[in-house]
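A note from the maintainers: we've had questions about how concatenated examples are separated. There is no special marker in the raw files; a new sequence line simply starts the next protein. For clarity in this README we add a label.
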Amino acid sequence: MITSKHLIVSDADTASVLTSLRSGELSGGGPLVREYEAALADWFGCSHAIACSSGTAAIYIALAAIGVCQGDEVIVPPTAPAMTALPVLALGATVRFADIRPAGFGLDPADVERTMTARTKAVIEVPMWGYADNIEELRELCSGSRIELLEDASQAHGSMAGRRLAGTGVAIGAFSTHARKLLATGEGGFLLTDAAEHARPAQRLRGLGQSDGGGEAFGDQFGLNFKLPGILAAMGLTQLARLGQRVRDRNAVADRWLAALGDLPDVEIVPRPRVHNCYGLAITVPARLRGRIDDALADCGVLTDTKAYSYRPLNEAPLFATRQRCKNALALIDGLIVLPCHEGVTGSVIDKSVSAMAGCG
């Protein structure tokens, strides 16, 4: 079954991991991790990169670093996955939902403003499937309200809206490097920030209370062990070197999908950012056809994310269920199908899939 994710382990990855094993640099405090962080900061053009154990840990650290705690509120879009919101609950804060813009995944600044209260501490933008959005208006709103803007860019490595790479241009950007990501270390994550006042507490929270070069003794400051092992940092270095090529390869697959879809009735393409990493290609169909098309694609061996994860608005999930109505998110998700764009999706698979979709109308 072809899913929307595909882990590629190269000879370079294997060699890097073996070198790490032979060197004995396996802990999260070794030089390989520092080298990996420096490479991440350089690739994304940020002052600070902080490697950690998972994308969920990255979000937790980001929220804690800006002071989110019990009684605070954090605004997220209903299109976000549960992994974005679970760290909010872990910190004792409350998840609030604001709607997205029509026909996209970016938060609607007007609805964010309506959702804000005196307890709002942070807003998290989430470019699902790599659909980075222009955040200028949202950034101005948060700045004027003295609320921190974060971005969970776990699915958006290499995507760019305007001149901004996803995960940059915000207080803190959080990423996952799970096996299914374009930059994959099996498990892992990292944070990006240009602000030293965010980097230091994030490092302490990641490293049992110690910041990089800070000289703190254990017990001086609070922190947990969210460090990334050196062996995974070694793999991250070689994966990072291929990230640009992986984005190009996935765009080639997306182009084949778009050419095959052509004028297929009832299919609309969700507007894409300036540079799309093609974590998945989002299309919409009439809501009455979504389940039928998902099933037809599965019969062709293509398991879409919308079917695999029973995708629905997060504010309808039992753990987060609220009475907040987010009509744009609901309208998008009701007809959303996300097509896989990884390197294993061939032209013949695409042609067969589009033929099956055509028979569902």
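[label: protein 2]
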Amino acid sequence: GIDLAAEQIRIAAGEPLRIRQEDIRWNGSAIECRVYAEDPSMMFLPSPGRITSLQVPSGPGIRDDSGVCPGWEVPIFYDPMISKLVAWGNGRPEAIARLRRALDEYHVGGIRTTIPFFRDVLDDEEFRAGHIDTGYIARFLDRQHSATSDPAQVPPLSDEEVAGAMIAAFDFMHESREAEMVADRRSFTRESNWKRAARSALLKR
């Protein structure tokens, strides 16, 4: 086989591409879930905050590309992606089964994530059958809403309520960040015992 990493270096150096289209072979099936710090039950509103615990899945055919850890603060100012979770299998059913198991093992404490949403998608018959197009998510959410709709339940949030919730979350994060900056400044300006001892020693000379 061709070393793809080495091939990229050769191409960057100006050498011609040695891989032909007929060299490319389909090998199994892979599915990726982009795990975000968002709340699926609240129209995917951002869920910033501190990650209090983290359990990352592993096993055959599972790859998790992530840069977070317990104690890390998910900000509201940037892309709230937690990781890219990928499952590979010899075929689509095996890839789905492996990814479903991995999602069951995945745990992110302290914040809301899209993990429950992906679990529901993988259990959906239309998805499992491979009937996917640009309108799939809208159809899936409609089915979810129809299955859980109850006149006695609280009605869904209006656009104004969603906007208000987002503003409140932003204000909360802004105030928290300002409080942290004040604490950092106080810590920075506070004299240490080492400094006081050194100054005393100099005065005695």
